[in-house]
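Researcher: Go.
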Amino acid sequence: MAHKRRSTNTQTTTVASEHTPLAGVTRKQGKYLFDEIPLWQQDNHYIRSGYVLETNSFKDCFNSLFYLHNETVNIFTHLIPGFLLPLALLLASPWLVAHNRLIKSVPTWLMDVPVYETTSKVDNFMFNLFYFGFASCLTLSAAFHATKCHSYKIMKWGSSLDYVGIISLIVTSMVGIIHYSLYDDPIAHWFCILFVGAQGTICLVLTLNPRFREPEWRTFRATMFIIFGVSSVVPIGYGLWRYFTFLWY
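Model: Structure:
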């Protein structure tokens, strides 16, 4: 495919074919149209503008955080709750505790949380497991959206991490639900956890397929994650059935 060249007073843009970098182009801060970016960046033809041109530089990827483009919302809606806010609380917690500000800032009704003698280390682990899945999903997604303009190679690597984060959140969410809803049914408890683990493993293997991230697999990707998420209805439904059966009888 021939290279198409467009020149203006402020920038020169070349459309490259396949996955080749744009050689000889003066890259300046700016946003580009769909037809001005390499084919590997053309993932969604409905989004026609606001693209960050392939940078081949992590520094330029970082600089793109400070101006508006079509990945800005994706980046910060994941980065703030998944990484920056927890990090800020972690760094500020010694000062807050030392000045007794953390306790005073929390409403009384939130502090009145019952502590049960039956609460085990496994129960605490399940909470921490969910927090880990939540933070890893959002952080990996933010990293992917922030660096996907680097190069085709980095985009593929980041895309895989993004899917790993999604799988991590689904698995840790479902395991926590199963743990508490089927607490007194060990057989169903472990069966459902193993079932979720098997599903997560299958999804993980599929995401490692190089073709999985291609645009033509978009429908399959969406369907796979929807089915994986909706499958949580099975253990939840079973737990509700046991609960209401207990009430009725």
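Model: Confidence is low (pLDDT under 50) at residues 1-17, 23-27.
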